[in-house]
Description:
There is one protein chain. The chain has helices at 3-30, 36-63, 84-107, 114-137, 148-152, 160-178, 199-218, 228-254, 259-273, 282-305, 314-332, 334-337, 341-373, 380-385, 387-392, 397-411, 425-468, 471-478, 501-507, 510-530, 556-578, 610-621, 631-637, 676-679; strands spanning 66-67, 71-72, 485-498, 534-539, 542-547, 584-598, 604-608, 627-629, 641-651, 655-665. The protein is α+β, with helices and mostly antiparallel strands. It folds into 3 domains: 3-75 and 85-384, Orthogonal Bundle (Ammonium transporter fold), CATH 1.10.3430; 396-468; 482-679, Nucleotide cyclase, GGDEF domain (Alpha-Beta Plaits). Helix 1 packs antiparallel against helix 2 and helix 4 runs antiparallel to helix 13 (341-373). It is elongated and about 125 Å long. It is found in: Cell membrane; Membrane. Residues 492-619 form the Guanylate cyclase domain. One of its GO terms (molecular function) is ammonium channel activity.
Amino acid sequence: MSQIDLVWVLMCTALVxxxxxGFMCVxxxxxRTKNNISVAIKNISDFSLSVMLFWLLGYGLMYGESxxxxxxxxxxxxxxxxxxxxxxxxxxxxxxxxxxATILSGAVAERCAFHAYLxxxxxxxxxxxxxxxxxxxxxxPDGSPAGWLGKLGYYDFAGSSVVHAVGGxxxxxxxxxxxxxxxxxxxxxxxxxxxxxxxxxTMLGVILIWFxxxxxxxxxxxxxxxxxxxxxxxxxxxxxxxxxxxLAVSWMLEKKASVFHAMNGGLAGLVAITASCDLVSVRExxxxxxxxxxxxxxGDRALExxxxxxxxxxxxxxxxxxxxxxxxxxxFGVNELETSFWSQFGMQVTGIAALIFLAVVLPFAAxxxxxxxxxxxxxxxxxxxxxxxxxxxxNTDLNELFEVMQRQARDRDLxxxxxxxxxxxxxxxxxxxxxxxxxxxxxxxxxxEQKNDLSEAxxxxxxxxxxxxPKRIAERMNGGADQIVDQVTDATVxxxxxxxxxxxxxxxxxxxxxxxxxxxxxxxxxxIQEYDLEKIKTVGDSYMYVxxxxxxxxxxxxxxxxxxxxxLFETGQMGQSIGRKLQVRIGIHSGPLVAGVVGDLRFxxxxxxxxxxxxxxxxxxxxxxxxxxxxxxIDRIGNEFVYERQGRVRLxxxxxxxxxxxxxxxxxxxRKVQRKSETGI
Length: 681
């Protein structure tokens, strides 16, 4: 390697290292403020851990003398080589390893415990990344492929799969075990996106990563050759086409230009071109990047549908985009590789299958086992307060102000004061906030007394309304409605009248007749309460109720008939208890009506319309001890009840009508509500 080549690779190493800063900006900006410090410390920690473990173990496993094409066996913790070229290649591969490791950080953000993240990083850089890297990139002393995938002809120029798909695959395994963040997916199944702390910082991170990709792809040539400018141009146009594709498609689907899909489309385009940037033309690079951007968008939507929570979209961008980049080699690069499409296609598919097994399936099983021994996820409390404070004790002036506000909201204690200082922005806010609190505290007692008086008055009003009106109607009046009128398209009205009650009252003392009426109507009240029906009023010895008005009862007609049968039963029971023959006539009709609250001094909930009039006339023409109903009732109940035709009668003010008598439910047709005597209530 010439001196100019050494300088070029070292410069590219520095560019790839700059991608670490880009990833940190992306992740810190897209996560919530309470977790952005946690993301930052994860980024610097995973790179530091990568440096030590890759030097100690990973580099030897990846580039050491191959054992059967599966694993390296030399070069562990090397020292004293004195070889500038070896050190340069190690440094270049080291920053690649750091990139693969840091991909994970954004995917598991906001709920992965710090110790768990370090364990996952260690598995990535010490085992998974170097093993797959050995399979694909390891070479023998003569420069020929030494790994089993490389020997087959598998091709990945700069790491679409080795770096990005491996990092994204491990991220997928981790988030499957961790599960989504609290509140990410609502009970209705709808996905909810959280607001990032600083989207401009995120976009700066994307640009830094893009800048670093000049070193990522350009440096993978390992020499400053005439091919480098073409590689860099392909890299740039692929990223740009990915941005525009993500922007355009999200604009069409969501009716807005999405920052998230634009940035991830660009990153996916860069990931996708990385495997074949030395093989394809500029036009082909545009196509590869566009497809990568589309895959990132559709992949993100697919993860949401599956309720898989990837905070930054690492899986769609790096895993899915990386797999597409590997397959793009077969679609666009076979001429340069001098192979056939189907031959290269089979080689690339074989590599993808090996990658999924090594970087997704095995890590998923390992993380499940680790999670049982040492939970990978933080506690719900730590997740709620944020990992900045919960795991790292990294508080800020703004967090302290928020804590004071939260304590005040929780304890209703205005005596607590916010931190104040004239020399910081948050301290100045606290100073003025405390001045407002002082004024509020002075009037708080007066406000509380007035509130208590008002609450008592409202409670008295509500109790009064609920005693004289249906609960749902009373709630509407309490809500401020000054007129309650409802047009009901279909309901069932029931009139009940005690037969020969006038003669009975003439033969007994008034107290006895009034007691009978009170006890009987009390039984009727119990029946309609069981069936969730509404008593409208009593007039003398008549009782009226309705089904399907104040309660949502789709089969209101059948329920009204069940209650009528119960009323006949209760009337007979009452008659037996007093030793007299006691009968009622019941008239029922279904149809449209108007209901509302009448009166100002005394409220009455009443019904009016032809349906009410018809039910009243049917009761008058009915037979003692029978439930008389109109044709409209028969049309609604179908074959649920046993009934017989009474015949045509002339109803007062209405004219000839056909009436029917209801005997009860047919055998095998269950009541909508059982009697209390049957249920044991």
